Amino acid sequence: MNKLIKSLLPLALFIIVVGFLFKGLYLDPHEVPSPLVGKPAPAFTAPVLAETGKTFSSQDMKGKVWLLNVWASWCGACREEHPVLMDMSKLSEFEMVGLDYKDTDAEAKDVLNTSGNPYKLVVTDAEGKIGINYGVYGVPETYLIDKAGVIRYKQIGPITKELLYTKILPMVKELQR
Amino acid sequence: MIPEIGQFSLILAFCFALIQGIFPLVGVWKGQYNLANTVVPAARAQFIFIIIAFLCLDYSFYVNDFSVLYVASNSNSQLPVMYRLAALWGGHEGSMLLWVTILSVWTMAVTMFVKNLPESFRIRLIAVMGLISIGFLAFILFTSNPFERLIPAAMDGRDLNPLLQDPGMVFHPPVLYMGYVGFSVAFAFAIAALMDGRLDITWARWTRPWTTVAWVFLTLGIAFGSKWAYYELGWGGWWFWDAVENASFMPWLVGTALIHSLAVTEKRDAFKVWTVLLSICAFSLSLLGTFLVRSGVLTSVHAFATDPSRGLFILLFLVVVIGGALLLFALRAPNVGLGERFGVVSRESLLLANNVVLAAAAGAVMLGTLYPLLMDALGAGKISVGPPYFDAVFVAIMVPGIFLLGLGPLAKWKKASLPDIGVRIRVAAIVSLLSAVLIPFIMGKITAMVAMGVFMGIWVISTTWVLLLNRIKTRGLAASHILGTLKAIPLAFYGMLVAHLGVGVFILGVTLVKGYETEQDLRMELHDTATIQNLVFRFDGATEIAGPNYISSQGTVVVLQNGKEITTLKPEKRYYPVQGSVMTEADIKPGVIRDLYVSLGEQLENGAWSVRIYIKPFVQWIWAGCILMAIGGVLALSDRRYRIGNKKVLAETEDLQRVVA
Predict the structure, then answer these.
(1) How far is A6 from chain B (nearest CA, A)?
(2) Domain B1-161 bears CATH identifier 1.10.730
(3) pLDDT digits (tens, 9 = 90+) for B176-211
(4) For A65, phi and psi rounded to 5 degrees?
């Protein structure tokens, strides 16, 4: 009996995987509540990409509504998101800061040089330390931060056009008032 | 007309697959062998019709028949002939046709070369391959028909994705598919053996060469793919851990474990349950990979929310094939004997440990690949798991495995003594430790990762060398007889040495290129120079040239060493008007010690360009290592005991090996 149970183990594992795969076929990305929403954004100071010696501090953005977009050159979903970010930067309704997460500067610069730079500036987080404070567990993630430095909205996964127009822009307008 | 012939052939092939998959199984079960014996003719008929279908589709590409939807979507009248023919596997429908074509090639080979097996076993073996074929043919016919007409016909085609317009594209997919579809043979052997209740030495002996052939193809396929990415993507990376790559890498890891486990089962009659499970897993992972790549669950979430039929079909097929196989395994495995016992320290136990390491590595890759999907399914959002995870976890798991790789072949079967192994590896350990310090010292920078990588690489190479010396010694070393001694060692043994050597070379390549590559992103005007290490790169401007279906800006970069020209590189930026896309074609001067890699970025004002220059030390060793592994596989296959119809030699060689071992 014991032996039979042991030999059923691979099948059981497989069934679990199939369950996830099945669900995966019908999935839509959707928003997830984050414990950080409504709390002050963790402060950080970090080097600016491509500008040796320059640093950026989250305090610099006090009094502005801004987006913090966590991305990396190795992240496929970020590439998907990139055109939307480019559109967003052309609207110039607000400023967006990129956080280059666990990446090398060279590769990050590459991406920005070849496909365009939607950011006001990009700070680097090669070790992922800032990411830990923000509870980043996957890339891309985006945080909407208000004038007082409080996180108002968190998007896990790529920003879509739909999300930009139905959610983010209205929220920004609201917060800018 | 031709596409209709293709379509019709495919339907006929499907009918023959039904016969091949179902009748023989019923026949064997009921003991009606006239029914069961339909298996070989049905398999061969299926093969012929699939080949006809394949040729029909390729002919449509050749003559630019844009009334076929698939041709119109993936080709163009300006496309060079070689790429037109390869465009067959440039899209979804054609890839599936290639898949099933290669499956039928394997089946055909099985019907020709598998002899001297018990009748029921052989029939079931071929029938199982028929069952797999049924699934894929049904998938093609019902959800992904490559022969669908486009009426009215398109004026011209939408062209093959420019990324795929490369000689690599012509060879990479068929070789890769030969590999992972090839594991279907080991799978079919395992299922047939479970059905037949015949998990024994004969089964292992027959599975082994088939598995090795598939593994050799897969190794080469992955290496080709990596090389292709290296020169085609234009930024010098050679492995990205993306879902498509992982889909081929997981079966490779499990297949590697399987090859080793089969050796133990054949020689010692041990690990049978584990071996059969690995046989099932290797092919299951190939199928899973096909699902991941073809259903789009990982790459684009929305794509199949609207039309999940393809994904659903493959998933259903996965459930039937893998679920059925694992169920059969669960029912039969408890009755399989344990085989010969072995000591805690023995070649068996070390091989088992190595197997666990490889399986764990495959598991870690699978977890990383599926993690985004799991998180999404659990409602935690869409995320991306990238190289930071894979690099860290994969290296951590493989380090003990690589260490064991050095020890395993030196240990004796059944029971080995640690002090004895210790004495044998003494020199290898010292050499590896010294190299771990010396090589980084020579390269000019010492880091812990590089030192460890060099240690591992040299460890593998030096223990492999020790192994050869040991083998010569046990045969009695006399300088005059050295050639004779070397000749008497079976080819399979050399195969192992060369493959392991390949692993060492690969590790050194990866370590040194990761540790010492340099990269410069420069703005260069006409005749600007850049000095990197002892080399001077001079930019001699860019000129427009016209290709067959693209327009290219070709830069000229002259490389000088001590004032002398050593090479001229001509990187290109190509514009493909049909799809409106721009491709970067890097130009590379490969070398044993280092590659010089130059690619063009954007055109800037005043005739200046952004130019990217990489110096990649030892990067070629990565692929050289893979090729050595593949050569090792081929050597093992050429061993004389595998020569067909040579049963006497087979018996003799085995006696010999018993004596030696």
Answers:
(1) 8
(2) no
(3) 999 989 999 999 999 999 998 888 888 998 999 999
(4) -90, 125
